[in-house]
Write a structure and sequence with these properties.
Length: 277
Amino acid sequence: MVRGRALNRFLKRPAAVAGLVVIVAFVALAVLAPLIAPFDPIATSWTAIRKAPSALHWMGTDENGRDVLSRVLFGARASLLAGVVSVSIAAGIGVPAGLLAGFAGGWVDAVLSRIVDAMLACPFLILAIALTAFLGPNLTNAMIAIGVSTAPRFMRVARAATQEIAGLDYVQAAYTLGTTPLRIAVRHVAPNILPPVLVQASLALAAAIIAEASLSFLGLGQQPPSPSWGSMLNSAQRFLTQAPWLAVFPGLAIFLCVLSFNLVGDGLRDALDPRGR
């Protein structure tokens, strides 16, 4: 019943639904990229260098004669994979830590909160760059770095939700009935902190996609010749006046993908609001 009301509230928000449609389209394009990409994304052609968009190359070609459309499609794989994996890492670290801090309280909460404060004191992207540079420049390490850098945000959300729920009457009644703290945390508290965690996850996906593109732009993420939206923008900056399509299409892909996740996040936040606004 509650899920049905939340779904109805979400569907009544056209912007959120439009964002979800765009996300589904990006996922479908990424999954089907090997089947629908017109060319090999890393195949070069010295006779087709920086060709403008045409019937043969819908988004033109780059400085090495590679088809931009094919590289954008395969680049979606790297960006979406980085978003999903890094957010999964962040939630896997941050949610249990936040649940423990909020439920246990005392010195456990104090220690974990100070660790989170220290990590949040460093800007998110700077921390991700530092971790990636330490681990080594590749997509796997970039995803780990983004996940670790995002974990404090999940910990904060989970901790606040846990503290709010732990003070409710039904939790206190469970204590009175002799239910163990572990069972209360797992059965009564954890399921009820999922709504704010889901909202945070959708917003974190947008941030993770931007972070992956930034790291690839700096040469710390997906390594050439494998396509990535960020590395495509890095290559395009040298040809902005001669071949602007090299920057327009990967930049538009990043913009649409990030905007869509933010719209879905806003829709989820309103739909899952218990006050039913």
